[in-house]
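My main concern about presentation is that the manuscript never shows what a single data entry looks like. Each protein is reduced to its one-letter sequence and a matching series of backbone shape codes. For the editor and my fellow referees, an illustration may be useful. For illustration, here is how one protein appears when written out as sequence plus structure tokens:
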Amino acid sequence: MEAGDRKPAVGMVQPMPGYGEVLVRSFSCMNTAILECRDCGFELSKRTLLENASLTATEGLLFLVCAVGWTLLRKTASRYLFQPLAHWCDLQPRDAAKMPESAWKLMFYAASWSYSTYLLFLTDYPFFHDPPSVFHEWRATMDVPEDIAIAYLAQCSFYGHAIYATVYMDAWRKDSVVMLVHHVITLALIAFSYAFRYHNVGILVLFLHDVNDILLEFTKLNVYFKNRAGVRHRLNDVVSNLGCCTFAISWFWFRLYWFPLKVLYATCYSSLQSVPNIPFYFFFNTLLLTLTLMNIYWFLYIILLVVKVLTGQVMEVNDVREYDIEDSCSPVVRKTYHHLHLKNSSKDRVRQRNGIIVHKYL
């Protein structure tokens, strides 16, 4: 298939309405769709799934292989690259235990966001500048362009790995349950959007979310590297402060401003204008709205941090996700946590510690 044949038809770019108008149009359109839906229910969903879903066994196998591959690659990188680097830099034990997680995520999100940026701005896909075009000439049987399929395979398998990693590999935090729900919803969105050929809007969602993860993990790494070999490094301190502020601004701009303008407007309003009775309209928009609510939830964490800085409750900026379970548990649990932390950090078995904490707090 030639490159020119696989790109959506591009007409005149529709001028984007204001933020308020986007919300009014989107929710008005959803409300109308709910009122006019006379045959909504399990049987319709089942029939629509069988008629429109397109996912092969080969694609499912590739997902499993890549998900396991991400897990093995992370374990290898942590053991032979990130942990030796933490030891060489003489990080504090607690920072050294968490640094490999952030370094791994930074590498993945930097690569994935760079690729989605390439797709949106260095090819002839018009999706970012003309979001309604994501549903131009949509068909349930349409082929997924190879460059977008690669992005989907990488992202879908990574989030399959991330569900396992959140429970068994990552440090357990106060919002880890929300993070686990986020990974499940994201995996469902990616898999189903691929199966139902909503891959165009999916690239927009990935682009608008991955940039924040890059800034988050970059900031956390600088927080960990502030104290090395018993010496406080001013450069990492300044960079972490700037990174946290940039992260807060980008979170609002990409996830709370552009996300409704670029994604929710297209899925809630433009989809029905281009494809009346588009399948699983309510399913996808429910997941996207749930994702929006979680973005608001995490933004409240950011606001909390800003308030504490402005009121002098904290003297320096740190990532609000660094409120670990250890910070809020009882002295007995904290002592046990500390013992397991020291024991498992030296043996690269953080999952054992997390397994215990998950069992106690889920």
Notes: The radius of gyration is 22 Å. The CA atoms of residues 67 and 89 lie 31 Å apart. Residues 1-10, 323-362 have pLDDT under 50 and may be disordered.
